[in-house]
Amino acid sequence: MTDDTPGIDGSKPSIARIYDYLLGGRDNYPVDREIGDFFLNDLPGSVEVPVENRRALIRAVAAMAEDGIRQFVDMGSGLPTADNVHQVARRHRADARVAYVDNDPTVLAHGRALLAADERTTVILADVREPETVRHHPEVARLIDFGEPVGVVFSAVLHHLDDEERPGELVRWWAERVPSGSRFYLSHFRSGHNEQTRLAEQRLQSAFGRGRFRTDREIADLFGDLELLEPGLVPCSLWRPESASGDRSGAGERELTVWEQMISCGLARKP
Ligand code: SAM
User: Fold this and answer.
1) 253 C-alpha vs ligand 1 centroid, how far in Å?
2) 123 C-alpha to center of ligand 1: Å?
3) Alpha carbon of 50 to ligand 1 centroid (Å)
4) Predicted TM-score of the model (pTM)
5) Which of 143, 162, 182, 229 could join 270 via S-S bond, C-beta 3.0 to 4.6 A?
């Protein structure tokens, strides 16, 4: 990949590009592949983590859209891939609108290229730790009507925040500013108390100098007073595995792998 977009630094690893590499994407640099290859080669099977995370996100977006949500803010959206949030949502609600938010300029460059002709989506370069900036960004204000329910997505992003950055307060900030009936979807790396998970966490922390896997209790706390919908907070593979997306992983009838256990998710409703 070569890209001259201002801000894109091919000498430093990027969370978005490594994740995309693991999902089979081509928008990456050697520095990203070095970390991606650690997961592929030294932690065999760990590719299940992004794959199951993405599958659960697709099922959750479909569920939100089926429940009537027609506007989404996708925090830490990542590089465009197969089945982006707006594409999934529009299978159920043709008029769905999506604001993608990421602080990686690579995401902005590729997102804009993909979405240029689409009036009902936008991608903005912003840090999710600065919710005021996201909320009042002109593109978000143009697209999202905060008077009607919103689907707020924090998929695989809050584990990149340290405790001092108060991820729970960030979720609450949004929960206080969207109407009743809004949905919150979160997925998060889970501390598994085993060697593989410890190595994965260590590698991510050494690459990015931040972030933390959390226990089930800590992840559940991120939802605050929101009302968790069925089946609650569970490993991504177990989140409504038989729902409309056609995913047939067979999870639920067999023991989950250590990698499937490494990422959990939940969908909640603002009462
Ligand atoms: N949400 C997508 C998914 O679940 O498929 C992508 C997840 S990827 C592991 C995490 C994304 O969060 C990356 O694109 C990264 O750039 C973004 N990210 C990490 N920290 C962020 C921050 N503070 N503000 C905005 N985006 C952030």
Assistant:
1) 31
2) 13
3) 12
4) 0.95
5) 182
263 CA to centre of ligand 1 in angstroms? 15
Instruction: Say if residues 187 and 265 touch (Cβ distance below 8 Å).
Output: yes
Alpha helices in 116-147 (DSSP H): 131-136, 138-143
> Per CATH, which fold does 15-241+255-269 belong to?
Rossmann fold (3.40.50)
Task: Give, as one character, the DSSP assignment of residue 229.
Answer: P
Is there an atom of ligand 1 within 6 Å of 156 CB? yes
58 within ligand 1 shell (Cβ under 6 A):
no
What are the CB-based long-range contacts (under 8 Å, 24+) for 248-255?
249/52, 249/55
Question: Does ligand 1 lie within 6 Å of residue 107's CB atom?
Answer: yes
Helix (H) or strand (E) holding 152: strand 151-155
Listed by start position, the domains of the chain span: 15-241+255-269
From first to last of its 271 residues, the chain has per-residue pLDDT tens of: 445 566 898 999 999 999 999 999 998 999 999 999 999 999 999 999 999 999 999 999 999 999 999 999 999 999 998 899 999 999 999 999 999 999 999 999 999 888 888 999 999 999 999 999 999 999 999 999 999 999 999 999 999 999 999 999 999 999 999 999 999 999 999 997 789 999 999 999 999 999 999 999 999 999 999 999 999 999 999 999 975 444 555 666 679 999 999 999 999 999 9
